[in-house]
Every structure is written in structure tokens, then in C-alpha cells.
Amino acid sequence: MKNITIKNDAGLLALALRLVVGWTYFSAFWRRTILENKLDPEIAGYIGEKFNHFLPNALGIKPLIEYLVENPDALWLNMVIFTIVEGIVGLSIMFGLFTRLMSIGVFALAMGILLGSGWIGTTCLDEWQIGVLGIAAGFVLFLTGSGKYSLDNYMMKNHFSLTKKKVFVWIGSGLLPIKEVLFSKVVLIGSLFIFGMTLMTNQVFHGGVWGTLHNKSVKPKLELSEGAISNSMLSFDVYRTEGVDVYGSWIIEIELLDEQNKQVIHYSQEELADLMNESISNYYVAKVKPGKHSLIIPLGAKAKMKLKNDSFANLDQGIYTLKMTDISGAYWELAITKKE
């Protein structure tokens, strides 16, 4: 009986990983451009609004996200570029074309997902898992390259001139020119870095390593600030920083209470649903707006509210409490001092 020797090709063994990871990125391009149009700012489901949802608790890249959501033209351009890059990276990884270069793209895209939206996820820490697994997959695919079933391999077998250049092994596939003793250290250091990033973000976003677990995607949370009562106007900023990203916060009541906790001004849900656009000045692309039955505040939305009422001018000096109540019964308060 003959001995059969099987040569294990790391790039070949990573085929399933390559196909699945490639599709997760290419499918984003496919969904936004072919199945639906999610790049049109005027259509519901615009990807820019989803990007805005990341803002309140993003890690490290918050200033970049804030700049983009404050500048709709720049946001749209970046969303188009981001979508095209995802399509190219995903398709190239699936076909095994310039695998190592594209694996860096996988790593970078996954890092962006992790830092931007790793805190979002109502059941299984969805975005965090996608981010950390994408980073690990990008690192592994850089180490392995692609094997037998790939365009890199096709080019090498057919002696394309590009494959003869020293750079090809770093951007395509093939045996990395790293000494074995050094290669093992690269694998160890890279793996420990990614594991450390996994533990750090799990703790920061979810308290998943020690202490109390928390999930910022379960309940809506509003931050109220910049409150002022001047003449016949009450103004304040409202910013939704937590809660489900696909579900709005429905404000059904706004009250102003005096120091004895007595209601002096009241806006019902019907009145909030009938608010005029001039009463709401939005800062970002995710917009606070009147809905059919209440005031709707999407995740990441921030607005300056200006409520006009002659009764405000007749209020005595003192400290008042602004209270906003969600349909769930949750409420948020802000102390406001009225001066002459």
C-alpha cells in the first residue's frame, strides 16, 4: 500500500474563512446599492443615519464621526467611499485577489466597526462580536494568504510578471519571507494584541471582563442641557445617547415644574406631534422630529428645542425643572433657572 503525502496549504485551509468574511463585507455593498438604495440621504434607511447612531459612545474616533454627521455632504461622500471599499475588499477576499493587501482592508474596516459601534447590540453584543472577529480574521488571512482556489494562485501558476516582484508576496499570497523563529513571534505578538483589544473593548463597552455587566442598547437615555427661559421661550438641548438603534424614543410629555414640584407648563403628546419645524433645530443627520403620536428622538440625534408660550414670560424668578417623559414611562429632568 502506497504512502500518500498530503501537503497542508494554510491559504487553502482558510478558504471557508475567506469566503464568509469576504461575503460579510461585499454584502454591505450589495445591500446598499443593489437590493436597496441606502446611499440616498432623502430616503429612509440612509446609511448616514446609521453612522450617526454610532456617535454617542464611540471609542477613539468620536470626533471624526461627529464632524461627518455635522457636515452632510462630507458624510455622504465618505459613506459612498466606505461602501465601495467594502465591496472591493469583500469581493477580492472571496476571489483571493491581492489577499494580503485586502486582509489589511478587512482589519481596518473591522477596527472601525469595533471602535465606532462595538457598544451597540441588544442581545448578543452584535457589533462588538462582528468587530473583534473581523480583526482576528484579517490578521489570520494576512498570515495565510490564499491557497489553491484563488486568483493569486492562478497568477503565480501562470507566471504573471507581477508575481515575480518582491512586493507580491506582501500584497498577494505565497510564503512570507520571514524567518521561522521571528515568524512565531509575529504571530504571538499580533494575537496577543488582538486578544488584548478584545478584552479591553469588551470591558469598556459592556463590562464583560469584571464588574457589573451593562448594555447601552436596551433602554433609551436622553441628556438634557443648555436650558434657558427667556421672555416667552423655553429652550434646551436634547441628545439621545443610549437605546436600540432601530427604535426611536417616543416623547409623550414635556412638563415644566416649579420649586414645589407643581406643573406650570405642559405639552401633551398631541401637542408634541404637532410641533412646527422651527421649534426644532437639529445638529446632526439623525433628526429629532414630530411623529404621528409623539416627538421622535432617534439614537444619536441631538437638537435645540425652542418652545414658545406666553406663559413663560409670566413665570416668577426661580429654579424650575424640565421633565421629558418617554412612552415607556422613563423620564429625564433638567434644572433651569429663570432670571429677569
Any chance you could write out the topology, listing elements then pairs?
Elements: H1 10-13, H2 15-35, H3 47-53, H4 62-70, H5 72-95, H6 99-117, H7 126-144, H8 151-157, H9 168-171, H10 180-206, E1 221-230, E2 233-242, E3 249-257, E4 263-267, H11 269-273, E5 280-282, E6 289-290, E7 295-297, E8 302-308, H12 310-313, E9 318-326, E10 331-338
Antiparallel strand pairs: 1-2, 2-8, 3-4, 3-7, 3-9, 5-8, 6-7, 9-10
Helix pairs in contact: 2-5, 4-5, 5-6, 6-7, 7-10
Give the gist of this structure.
With 340 residues, the protein is an alpha+beta fold. It is 44% helix and 19% strand. The protein has 2 domains: 10-206, no CATH class; 221-338, Sandwich (Immunoglobulin-like), CATH 2.60.40.
Please supply descriptive tags for the structure shown above.
340 residues, alpha+beta, Immunoglobulin-like, four-stranded antiparallel sheet, 12 helices, 44% helix, elongated, disordered N terminus
Described by strand count, sense and barrel closure, the largest sheet is:
6 strands, antiparallel
N-to-C SSE string, H for helix and E for strand: HHHHHHHHHHEEEEHEEEEHEE
* Secondary structural class: alpha+beta
Number of discrete domains: 2
Outline: elongated
- Poorly predicted runs: 1-6
Q: What is the overall number of helices?
A: 12
